[in-house]
Amino acid sequence: MNRYMATIEYDGKAYAGYQIQNNALTIQEVLERALSTLFTNPTKIVASGRTDTGVSAKGQIIHFDADTTIPAERIPLALEHILPMDIAMTDCKIAASDFHARYSAKSKTYSYKIYLSKVNKPLYNRFYQYPYPIKINLMQNAICALEGTHDFRAFMASGSSVTDTVRTIDRAVMQIDEDIITIKVTGNGFLYNMVRIIVGTLLDIGRGHLQPNAICDMIATGDRSHGGHTAPAIGLCLDTVYYK
Asked: CB under 8 Å to 66, separation ≥6 — which residues?
């Protein structure tokens, strides 16, 4: 019996998030069913973390244990005939027996893509369409305040049971390519809807609906009301999970 580490890519649009639920289709359910079919034995997986309804990933990491003669590097190809087109295993290798996809992770990078347009662009259907004029320089100045170790409780949506809301953001940047904005945030952990609240707040700063120092106020006061709207799930993607 070996432990395997695998990279998973998925379009989350059709799924009720990663984690198995009783009455909705999820990424975990589809992956476990496919692996169980491939190995002809029930196979459970553990991910680096769960993604919410509609959120995608290109670098989700999972681990699973299996007794199989299929070489690790051939498992992704074997799964192609079992998995749907919107989920794929892109890499697989044998890991140390104590490797844990969640507890061994040190940090993650999430990206969020926005396209600025008043009309729908079908080729950008995984991005957040934002039709309002914004001042990019205000957003670029504001995003720097996220970096460092802070109490991010003002960036957490209601409904979470998390009590420790201190997180470290190593890097927060915004990239512009014509009409596409990409916001990337790397940190040691993220609260419920944290990245989506960051994005919505930055956009409201750029639009002039919030003061340029809104992010600083949120961190200082812990008050969600100082922030902006929660951006939709459609633009969010788990890019990379980092391990020591």
From this structure: 1, 2, 4, 35, 39, 41, 43
List phi, psi (to 5°) of 73. -70, -15
Query: Could you write out the DSSP letters of every residue in 56-82?
Result: EEEEEEEEEEE--SS-GGGHHHHHTTT
Q: Which fold has domain 106-243?
A: Alpha-Beta Plaits (3.30.70)
Phi, psi dihedrals of residue 108, rounded to the nearest 5°:
-140, 155
Residue count of the chain:
244
Selected catalytic residue, list 11, 52, 67, 223: 52
Q: For the full predicted model, state whether its pTM sits above 0.90.
A: yes
Task: Report the chain's terminal Cα–Cα distance, integer Å.
Answer: 24
CATH 3.30.70.660 in the chain, residues? 106-243
Task: State yes or no: is 52 an active-site residue.
Answer: yes
Q: What is the pLDDT of residues 213-235, one digit of tens each?
A: 999 999 999 999 999 999 999 99
Nearest residue to 191 (alpha-carbon basis) of 212, 169, 215: 169
214: which 2 tokens?
A: 């809104």
- In CATH, the architecture of 2-94 is 2-Layer Sandwich (3.30)
CATH 3.30.70.580 residue spans of the chain: 2-94
